[in-house]
């Protein structure tokens, strides 16, 4: 039933069975598919190394298979999993976090531009999609790879990557360059704007400002060398 290509491979898309989040794209050959069926773990064929690849064997981030589904042509497999950890080697939950920019008129097939988002009182829109390009309002309409609380871990992983690579043009990297005083100041500013939004009673404004605050709080944690998981552990301790 599976139509392998001329190299004996078939693309396999991993999807979180609980959230529906697409995690990664890899390739299977007959042997890795057989091992996946027999063991209940996701196995692939590594094209770069030319060998079987047991996902999670080195990182312990195993992908426990729930079910396998072929597409209508039999030349692609959907692998729904319960992930035991991030799927991406960068530490992100999903490998899909770099947004490709588009030209609205071309995407729609006409020359009519999409409407601009409503102005936000002239304030600096510094929180794009954390998984997209950074700076200004870029990526503001991007689709996040998660809409659950897991986005916080995913965002923390992306911030760690920005801190390590310090790419030019990255708003987050610029914050890291300016240092902890600048980052702490931004946290203070976003805290004040969150208070104002709450007093205004505007649902959308509160959502935006709290997102800004949480984003900069995660930047502060990364700059201070404190893993976000330490905060989750403290919250869990208090919950107990």
Give the secondary structure arrangement, pairings included.
Layout lengths: L9 E7 L5 E7 L1 H10 L3 E4 L4 E4 L8 E8 L6 E7 L20 H5 L41 H16 L5 H8 L1 H21 L2 H22 L3 H12 L1
**Termini separation:** 51 Å
CATH topology of the largest domain: Helix Hairpins
Count of helical segments?
7
Runs with pLDDT <50, length 5+?
A: 106-144
Estimate the strand proportion.
15-25%
**Shape verdict:** elongated
How does CATH name the architecture of the largest domain?
A: Orthogonal Bundle
Keywords:
two-stranded antiparallel ribbon, four-stranded mixed sheet, Ubiquitin-like (UB roll), 7 helices, alpha+beta, 240 residues
What does the model show?
The structure is a single chain. This protein has helices at residues 30-39, 104-108, 150-165, 171-178, 180-200, 203-224, 228-239, and strands spanning 10-16, 22-28, 43-46, 51-54, 63-70, 77-83. The longest helix has 22 residues, at 203-224. 23% of the residues are buried. It is an alpha+beta fold and 240 residues long. The strands form two sheets. It has a four-stranded mixed β-sheet, covered by helices on one side. Strand 5 (63-70) and strand 6 form a beta hairpin. The chain is built from seven helices and six strands, in the order E-E-H-E-E-E-E-H-H-H-H-H-H. It folds into two domains: 10-83, Phosphoribosyl-AMP cyclohydrolase (Ubiquitin-like (UB roll)); 123-239, Helix Hairpins, CATH 1.10.287.
């Amino acid at each position: 039933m599976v139509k392998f290509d001329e190299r004996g491979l078939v693309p396999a898309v991993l999807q979180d069975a609980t959230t529906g989040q697409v995690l990664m794209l890899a390739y299977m050959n007959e042997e890795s598919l057989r091992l996946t069926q027999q063991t209940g773990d996701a196995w692939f064929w590594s094209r770069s190394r030319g060998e079987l690849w047991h996902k999670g064997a080195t990182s312990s981030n195993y992908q426990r298979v729930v079910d396998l589904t072929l597409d209508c042509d039999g030349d692609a497999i959907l692998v729904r999993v319960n992930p035991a950890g991030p799927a991406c080697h960068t530490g992100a939950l999903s490998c899909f976090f770099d947004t490709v920019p588009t030209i609205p008129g071309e995407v729609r097939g006409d020359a009519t531009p999409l409407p601009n988002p409503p102005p936000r009182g002239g304030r600096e829109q510094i929180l794009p999609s954390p998984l997209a390009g950074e700076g200004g309002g870029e990526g503001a309409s991007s689709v996040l790879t998660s809409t659950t609380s897991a986005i916080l871990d995913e965002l923390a992983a992306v911030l760690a990557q920005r801190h390590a690579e310090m790419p030019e043009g990255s708003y987050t990297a610029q914050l890291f360059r300016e240092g902890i005083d600048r980052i702490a100041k931004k946290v203070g500013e976003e805290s004040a704007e969150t208070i104002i939004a709450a007093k205004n009673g505007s649902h959308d404004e509160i959502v935006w400002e709290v997102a800004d605050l949480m984003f900069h709080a995660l930047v502060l944690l990364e700059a201070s060398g404190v893993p976000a998981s330490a905060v989750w552990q403290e919250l869990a301790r208090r919950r107990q």
